[in-house]
Amino acid sequence: MDYSNFSFDPIDPEFLRNPYPVFSHLRDNDPVHWSDLGFWVVTRYVDSRATLIGKQFGQGNFVRNIQLFYGGDFDVMAHPAYAWLSRVFVMQDPPAHTRVRGLVSEALSLKRIRAMEPRIRELAVQLLDQYDRLGGDNFITDFAYRFPTMVMCDMLGMGAEEYPPDLLSRLNQAIADSFIVFETRALSEVELERADSQMLFLTAVFDELFESRRRAPRDDLTTAMLRSQEGGDSLTPEELSTSVIGLFGAGFETTAHMIGNGMYLLGKYPEQRLRLLDDPGLAAHATEEVLRYESSLQASYRTALEDQTIGSQTIRKGQRVLAIVAAANRDPAFFSNPEVFDISPREQKPLTFGGGIHYCVGAELARLEGRVFFEELVKRHPDFSVDVATARLRPAFLFRGLEYLKVALSSRAGG
């Protein structure tokens, strides 16, 4: 790539195929880079972390932030997908963010997540064995997408007796079509119409779910979120559906790609696969290394709430800053041998789940799903094979993952 007169462009096809040389160049030569698209780009670990956790940064004016891509005449809130995005607590600043995040975190407690491990393991085994039995071709659609979605359905109490069998696939497709609004670019007319339509579908599904639990409460996450309404502070019906769509999407876009990327990396680096086979106790560390080396979330935006300095650059109040966590996760100033995929324990933690008040509320669930997946994979299907040559990446920047990965599992399932 020619770096003379370079300006960061997240839709450049060459960049999307392999962004890491660009990240390395920026980190070494222009760590606080002004893009012609109208925002700053930071790539060093120290700058990215400061941007993500610093109180001098926030989300700022949502409408103005989206109009940065479309122009000042674009009616952001007329689009259901963008209107939904404006209500997601990760896109809000305190006090609205603090209130909604607190109520969601209370329902999605660490205690509840840890109690789910046996059921998560059961679902992993069920899906892996089903994939093997049916001779699955695309591991991404047939396992990686389905696993975190099934976990979230189970946590929400969405049983097969309540919902049609094809709902899982429809939910996955709707999330994929609507979460494109997170991308750092203007969408085409077709993309935006599809995102709006799918967001209306998702909202209808989850509005009905919450109404069902109002009529007949259960011991599930849906009811726990509803009960958060019983105190003086509460989630509104709109906030309930907004939050649960966000939880679903986080599982789909982050966890699913973490699993797909992890399977690809084990195929690409057979010595690390052998290490995991020899010591399944490395599963948690393998999960962390996948999150670091091939981050499913590549970047996160913030807005400067006041004038400030990063490196040698002055960031003006209201300007947008894109913290590239995937670049920070390979910063040699913070990580040893950052360009090497190594599932050995590392003291340093990646920035994949963000930081500060916007630290991902589902991070521990994602880590648990990753660990359980790797443990059951090597236990039950140690002879799995991955065709890395035919793997295909999704043509997207913000959430990096595969759309196709051919995997064959051993037919000799263990006990």
Tell me the fraction of residues in β-strands, as a range.
Answer: 5-15%
The mean pLDDT is 90
In angstroms, what is the radius of gyration? 21 Å
Strand order of the largest sheet: 1-2-7-4-3
Low-confidence sequence ranges: 411-415
Helix content: 40-55%
**What's the number of helices?**
18
Number of strands: 9
Give a structural overview:
There is one protein chain. With 415 residues, this protein is an alpha+beta fold. The protein is built from 18 helices and nine strands. The strands form three sheets. A five-stranded mixed sheet has the order 1-2-7-4-3, covered by helices on one side. The protein has a two-stranded antiparallel ribbon with strand order 5-6. The N and C termini lie far apart (50 Å). Residues 411-415 have low confidence and may be disordered.
Helix-strand blueprint:
Blueprint: H1 13-17, H2 20-29, E1 32-35, E2 39-42, H3 45-53, E3 57-58, H4 62-70, H5 80-87, H6 96-107, H7 110-115, H8 117-133, H9 139-144, H10 146-156, H11 167-178, H12 189-215, H13 221-227, H14 237-268, H15 270-278, H16 283-293, E4 300-304, E5 308-310, E6 313-315, E7 320-323, H17 325-328, H18 363-380, E8 385-393, E9 402-408
Parallel strand pairs: 2-7
Antiparallel strand pairs: 1-2, 3-4, 4-7, 5-6, 8-9
Helix pairs in contact: 5-12, 8-10, 8-18, 10-14, 11-12, 12-14, 14-15, 14-16, 14-18, 16-18
